[in-house]
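Database export, one record per block. Field names are fixed; values are copied verbatim from the stored entry.
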Amino acid sequence: MWNPISIDRYVKIHLKKNPKENEKVLRVRLEAALDDYKNGIKCKCGKDIWIVGSASSPFGCFSCISGRKHPAGDYEIESALDKRDKSGRRNIDEMDPRHINGMFDDDGYEINPESIKKPSLCLVCLKNIDPDWEEELLCNLNRNDQADEKEFKCGSFEKL
């Protein structure tokens, strides 16, 4: 999980650990990396660039720069995190694997089962009465997958 931080706060922390670093140059590199990110520049692997890391190793994502798959409290500029997921949902690629559970869509974003609307067809389905957890999971995934469709279709529908 990312540790969101402002550029000003990150610069202070970085300079404390690296006192020989030039503050102005560091700020320019961070701002340039943030601009690149906002303009859609990607790492060579296709993932979003990591602003904090790209200030020292240009155009790299977290995994390519750090050699680790997931951030575990690593800093990232908060405005980049805002752009990554405006819906407030967490992405599986940015989660600590030890804390992953639940449902995720095809893009890796967490699905809140409470936010999935039940189409009218589900209300007259036998499986809606007292579903076991597996059936409920499959129904939720099917409903979520078709959320933007005009007509809801269900291959396991059983009329009451």
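Remark 1: The helical segments are 7-17, 23-38, 51-54, 62-66, 78-84, 120-123, 133-145.
Remark 2: The mean pLDDT is 87.
End of record.
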